[in-house]
Amino acid sequence: MRKRELQRFQKKLVEQREQLLGNARRALAGDIHLDPDDFPDELDTASSEISLSFTGRLRERERRLLNKIDKALAKIGEGEYGSCESCGEDIGLKRLEARPVAELCIECKAEQEKLERRG
After folding, report:
1. 72 to each of 20, 23, 33, 41, 45, how far by Cα in Å?
2. Which of 107, 72, 70 is nearest to 92 (CA)?
3. End-to-end Cα, the chain, rounded Å
4. If exposure means fewest CB atoms within 10 Å of the residue's CB, which of 64, 68, 72, 108 is most exposed?
5. How far, in Å, CA of 57 to CA of 85, rounded?
6. CA torsion angle for 69, 70, 72, 77 (degrees, to 10)?
7. φ/ψ (deg, to 5) at 76
8. Nearest 5°: CA angle at 38, between 34 and 40?
9. pLDDT average, residue stretch 39-46
10. How far apart are CA 108 and CA 31, in angstroms?
């Protein structure tokens, strides 16, 4: 992969990382809280708990994505970005454009998904 392409992916990953960290900062600043006194009946409380649970799942997904971004940035620094972790072949540029944190080439990813569906 050319240096210019690596820089472009690095920029994209850093921007995505900053956006995720900004979301987390806003959540920690008080966007998410549950005060039982705010909900006069059980339905309101249940609705709020479902909303909070959904928000928690989103935060967990963001945390996992943040870990993948950090791993991809480390690979750029080590000169290993864009190589499939399974077969060692280059991951296609179109795949990396769509998913900059991709760890597997499209063939290996398809095989992994096929095995997951069976098992």
Report:
1. 15, 20, 33, 47, 40
2. 107
3. 35
4. 64
5. 27
6. 150
7. -60, -45
8. 125
9. 60
10. 40
